[in-house]
Amino acid sequence: MAHPSQLGFQDAASPVMEELLHFHDHTLMIVFLISTLVLYIIVAMVTTKLTNKFILDSQEIEIIWTLLPALILILIALPSLRILYLMDEINDPHLTIKAMGHQWYWSYEYTDYEDLGFDSYMIPTQDLTPGQFRLLETDHRMVIPVESPVRVLVSADDVLHSWAVPSLGIKMDAVPGRLNQTAFITSRPGVFYGQCSEICGANHSFMPIVVEAVPLEHFENWSSLMLEDA
Amino acid sequence: MAGGEEAAGGKGFKLLGILDVQRTPCARDAILHGAGGSVAAGMLYFLATSRVRRSFDVGLAGFILTTLGSWFYCRINNAKLRVQQRVIQEGIRNKVIYEGTVLDPSNKPKADARSGSS
Fold it and tell me: Where is the Cytochrome oxidase subunit II copper A binding domain positioned along the sequence (chain A) (predicted)?
């Protein structure tokens, strides 16, 4: 999850998010160098002793400052497109989960083998136990097996919502009457937090998402327990 | 995770307020190489021509080119290491899964292989 006053991305928990982090570093370095160049040019222009600056021309510099930005954009676009298509790959998911957005909670359905479904409400602040995170914890987590490809079908029951988990690099709109598909693999076990990312009413900020990645046997035990309780 | 930023090894130092050189892989080395390249290029140009302003321009160009070169060299090496790491992880995972079965790549074919084994 994010920590207080965090500006950067959260640590990646999926291969796609790792790629996004690397791409962000690459692009940010380019932005930093361009900013340095612009800052230098501003200082140089302010401190120059030249008086006849505005009726000059130079074909060489015109060519440079046309080709160089084009080259920079290509350097940014190629990895960007690579990741874009990488994110669209769906490689034989082991598990399909339906995430339905409601006002104001999420419900999850695991219907591959048995009919398992449950709602996931935010735990109110006054009911939190020490160590739990305010506005992020839920009564039931979406539990998945670690390092297994998982497909999530996102939809909504009433208004627009959006199912987002930043550390997995996922955000998918939940549209009533529409099924949106996304898939991911968690690289490591852990608990990953997200929040509804489409304005959906008074409690839009209070319908978080919690994904818990556990080893397969723990996932099987959890699903058996949940089926018994249902 | 309050204080996670401190726990990760000190607060990040952001150049121009945007580039976190402490936490971005290869950034610190690239900037240091760039600074060295900038000073070297600027000094050499000044020693050759005694032109102060143009030396600063050459220094900036040296900074940008050296930083970019160091950055891409380091990132490409890191990318190769990551690919190797993934191959090794996959191999370890497959070894655990396939060890002792007919799919084990380290199995040598035996003349008296048992049939029907799982």
Answer: 92-225
